[in-house]
Amino acid sequence: MCEMSAVPEQDLIEQWTSEQASLKQRLVEGDTEEWQRAPDFKGLERVGGVDLSYIKGDDINACAQLVVLSFPELELLYEDSQMVTLAAPYVAGFLAFRETPCLLEALQRLERTQPSLMPQVVFVDGNGLFHYREFGVACHLGVLSGLPCVGVAKSLLQVQGIIRSEEHLSQIRELKKGGDSFPLKATSGRVLAQALRSSDKSTKPLYVSVGHRFSLDTAVRLTHVCCRYRVPEPIRQADVRSREYLRTHFPSADTCG
């Protein structure tokens, strides 16, 4: 169970804004591991992915999923599917307070039971620094877990002057092959993310941002290496397995990520 007490939304927003600012002070931008600096990521052996899947029409109960894959093979080493109850409301810009406690619990269960399988990096289905206050769910999970994290979003968050303009669409068209990318720059001039064409076959970009203990260039490079399809394999496997868990346990329900 990942429950939070019922508090008026405005009070929650004030509380969360303060907590977010406090946690942000602990955020580390930049590579901290030797394997991050190696051209072939030598020394990286385990990559994690997390996701939550919901039953359509039910925004309280969800399946929290953690997978750990081998690197570079991207074969499954560990999976944890857990039904959770989310009592915190969805508020734009504060998704982490709704979802992170359950994802953190999954990582803590793994650390208690099979510490040798702890991931060296966690891919998060969501944003990191690419956020209203530069502290999205990937940052939140990274700081609380202490693990290097990368945020990977499938759609553009229109924030800090970054919009789905004709210029943006033109830049997407210029991504000719897998691995091509371009920076997303806020009105302040700060680069918050990279739009990445993850494979030759996929024309829709991913939006990659730093979560914790990563440089943006390394996050983009590792994301591309982990893509067999459009979405990096750790996130794709977490999504597939959480949906399958819901289909198995709630066969009459539709699911959504």
From TrEMBL:
InterPro entries: Endonuclease-V. Keywords: Cytoplasm, DNA-binding, Endonuclease, Hydrolase, Magnesium, Metal-binding, Nuclease, Nucleus, RNA-binding. It is found in: Cytoplasm, Stress granule; Nucleus, Nucleolus. This is Endonuclease V. The keyword RNA-binding applies. Transmembrane segments: none annotated. GO terms for biological process: DNA repair. One of its GO terms (cellular component) is cytoplasmic stress granule. The keyword rRNA-binding does not apply. Endoribonuclease that specifically cleaves inosine-containing RNAs: cleaves RNA at the second phosphodiester bond 3' to inosine. Active against both single-stranded and double-stranded RNAs. Has strong preference for single-stranded RNAs (ssRNAs) toward double-stranded RNAs (dsRNAs). Cleaves mRNAs and tRNAs containing inosine. Also able to cleave structure-specific dsRNA substrates containing the specific sites 5'-IIUI-3' and 5'-UIUU-3'. Its cofactor is Mg(2+). Monomer. Interacts with PABPC1; the interaction is RNA-dependent and stimulates ENDOV activity. Pfam families: Endonuclease_5 (PF04493). It comes from the Eukaryota. GO terms for molecular function: DNA binding; metal ion binding; RNA endonuclease activity producing 5'-phosphomonoesters, hydrolytic mechanism; single-stranded RNA binding. Gene3D superfamilies: archaeoglobus fulgidus dsm 4304 superfamily (3.30.2170.10). Belongs to the endonuclease V family.
